[in-house]
Write a structure and sequence with these properties.
It is built from 22 helices and no strands. It is an all-alpha fold. It has one domain: MFS general substrate transporter like domains (Growth Hormone, Chain: A), CATH 1.20.1250.
Length: 495
């Protein structure tokens, strides 16, 4: 590579406000994800469906969610309108999400029993379709937002901050305010929670559309003619030929399954409401951890900008793994009931370890969107094809297939210890089987998942230096308006 090319680093950079606004697209869909973590309590407690059926439906719907991803990704790559490639998908997705939730919670429980399950499945499937439309854009549009390896991690700062407010302050709002106000997970609680989420998600989507508007143009869509001749059957060759994609999918999927288990509403109830005997404490702990988790996010992104996203990913995963292992040890040593009766060594240790686990545990998922953009650019560099929708939804497809196991794992786990007709609630007494299953679901299995993630990232090669090299080469090819397949294959073999 010539010196002239090496020094020509004219990146497509975004303004800070554009990154901040566009990150709200992920926040909008995360709001829906958050409120749907409580859907099992609506389906079983209000609509009257059984625990086993609800667990099976949620698992199947997660698989269906994965199946819809490749279809939507293919549509994104083929879409070009006067409103851009990505903005129409964001708006369509959010409208479908709002409609599905309103229908699900307004009608399901009012139907005759024989129709409730069918209607619940239909409206949940509609939710999945809307969710797929909007979330696919979060990954795919990273490629047009910015291609500067030092700027891409900045998305993770905004995303991490927004997610902290959604998942931690959201839990505070539910556990400390809504439960106290409504007494339990009932229709009054769901109406209030869902209304707030729908309104906020709509506002966030509009801001995200504004943020990406200046970048959602053809001149930012990869190399010249790089979207031509992509077919639906190209998914398998792309996955088979892209080793970094394979490794990142496995690593992040393992990480997300770990913390999907820990964030399951039933598991939160088991940890705080039953083991520790104070469900409201989950809200208090979440409030305490907000600032430390934000500081952890800033630290991780600073590492990512200086040493690359791979380095930050690995370091964060190690801290999260050690913290989860520490939580298991803590509950085996200290009586959990003593942690809810004021300040003690036990509750201080729990708060520190829980904060580290949740803070560092969210870093891989926060970094994954800009990392997928790296992989999309690598695919363009390797093959000449600009297929961010296909790359992003390949990741989502496999990710959702695996993380769909979380509700089933939790449902099977609690059924194994006797909870076959209803999920554990704050009113259930702590027993030895319940104690052991809570530790396994909340901390034991997640720790094992992080080991898988660490092994995969050991072989992931798209570090900061490699991505800088890739962006320089893509800039050269774009300037020349051609793709040199022979040179591409030679460079690929070096990875």
């Amino acid at each position: 590579m010539s010196t002239a090319v090496e020094t020509n680093k004219e990146y497509n950079r975004a303004k800070l406000w554009q990154i901040g606004f566009f990150a709200l697209n992920n926040t909008a869909t995360n709001l829906y994800m958050f409120i749907l973590t409580f859907v099992s309590y609506y389906a079983a407690g209000v609509a009257g469906l059984t625990v086993a059926i609800v667990s099976m439906v949620l698992t199947f719907m997660r698989v269906f969610d994965g199946i819809t991803d490749p279809i939507v990704g293919f549509l994104i790559d083929k879409t070009e309108t006067k409103f851009g490639k990505f903005r129409p998908m964001m708006i369509i997705g959010n409208v479908i999400l709002a409609t599905s939730v309103i229908l699900m919670y307004s009608i399901t429980h009012t139907l005759p029993q024989q129709y409730q399950l069918v209607f619940f499945i239909i409206t949940y499937a509609l939710y999945v379709i809307g969710y797929t439309f909007q979330t696919a854009v979060t990954k795919a549009a990273q490629t047009v937002l910015t291609n500067d390896p030092k700027q891409r991690p900045v998305f993770a700062v905004f995303d991490g901050i927004y997610n902290t407010f959604v998942f931690t302050l959201g839990q505070v709002f539910v556990a400390s305010y809504l439960i106290a106000k409504h007494g339990d997970f009932n229709m009054g609680l769901f109406v209030e929670l869902n209304t707030i989420a729908i309104v906020l998600a709509g506002i966030f989507t509009i801001l995200a559309v504004i943020g990406i508007a200046g970048k959602d143009r053809k001149e930012f869509f990869g190399l010249a003619d790089s979207t031509v001749n992509t077919r639906f059957r190209d998914y398998w060759p792309i996955l088979k030929g892209n080793k970094p994609l394979q490794l990142l999918i496995t690593a992040v999927t393992a990480d997300k399954l770990a913390f999907t288990l820990l964030r399951q509403s039933v598991v939160i109830v088991m940890v705080f409401g039953i083991l520790m005997g104070n469900y409201a404490l989950s809200g208090t702990i979440s409030m305490i951890t907000v600032l430390p988790i934000l500081l952890i996010t800033f630290l991780a992104v600073a590492v990512a900008r200086k040493k690359g996203m791979r380095k930050s990913f690995v370091q964060a995963t190690w801290v999260a793994f050690l913290s989860l292992a520490g939580l298991v040890a803590l509950f085996l040593i200290v009586d959990p009931a003593s942690m809810s009766g004021g300040v003690s060594v036990g509750i201080v240790a729990f708060t520190i370890l829980y904060t580290l686990a949740m803070g560092f545990g969210q870093i891989p998922s926060t970094l994954v969107n800009p990392m997928i953009a790296d992989i999309s650019d690598y695919e363009t560099y390797k093959s000449g094809r600009y297929v961010p929708g296909m790359i992003g939804t390949l990741f989502s497809f496999i990710d959702k297939l695996i993380t769909s196991l979380a509700p089933a794992i939790v449902g099977f786990g609690v059924a194994l210890i006797g909870f076959k007709d209803a999920f554990p609630t704050v009113n259930d007494a702590l027993t030895t089987p319940l104690f052991g299953m809570t530790l396994l679901l909340a901390f034991g299995l997640p720790a094992l998942m992080l080991i898988v993630s660490l092994v995969c990232m050991k072989f992931y090669r798209l570090d900061d230096k490699k991505m800088e090299e890739i962006q320089i080469e893509l800039a050269r090819l774009k300037a020349e308006g051609k793709i040199e397949d022979t040179d591409m294959k030679t460079e690929m073999e070096a990875i």
